[in-house]
């Protein structure tokens, strides 16, 4: 199907759209596409930063709850990045 076949088919079927109406509809369609792409990019950026915030919050909550018991003696698990000895 060629580019203009849909319009020719609509005209042949008794559609009362003028060339000006068709041009206006195409401008509206293009505008809506641009708006959709812009909003999609905005959602992508917001989702990225929301994911980073959730990951940082999750990582921070694990730093304080990392205690493990090993063998018969109690040893404190030191998370990565923490230096110094734990008594």
Short description:
The chain is mainly α and 87 residues long. 61% of the residues lie in helices and 0% in strands.
3D structure, described in words:
By secondary structure, the protein is mainly α. The protein has helices spanning 5-12, 19-63. The longest helix has 45 residues, at 19-63. It contains 2 helices and no strands. Residues 68-72 have low confidence and may be disordered. The protein is rod-shaped and about 80 Å long. Helices cover 61% and strands 0% of the residues.
Question: What are the SSEs and their pairings?
Answer:
Elements: H1 5-12, H2 19-63
Determine the structural class based on helices, strands and strand pairing: mainly alpha
Helix content: 55-70%
Order of helices and strands: HH
Form type: rod-shaped
In percent terms, what proportion of residues is strand? under 5%
> What is the tally of beta strands?
0
DSSP summary: helix tally: 2
Distance between the termini: 78 Å
> Uncertain segments of ≥5 residues (pLDDT<50)?
68-72
| Rg, Cα atoms, Å | 31 Å
Q: Let me know the largest β-sheet.
A: none
Q: What is the average of the pLDDT values?
A: 75
């Amino acid at each position: 199907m060629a580019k203009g076949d849909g319009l020719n088919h609509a005209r042949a079927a008794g559609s009362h759209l003028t060339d000006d109406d068709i041009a206006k509809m195409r401008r509206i369609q293009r505008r809506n596409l641009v708006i959709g792409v812009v909003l999609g990019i905005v959602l992508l950026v917001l989702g990225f930063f929301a994911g980073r915030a959730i990951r940082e919050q999750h990582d921070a909550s694990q730093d304080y709850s990392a205690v493990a018991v090993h063998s018969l003696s109690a040893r404190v698990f030191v998370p990565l990045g923490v230096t110094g000895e734990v008594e």
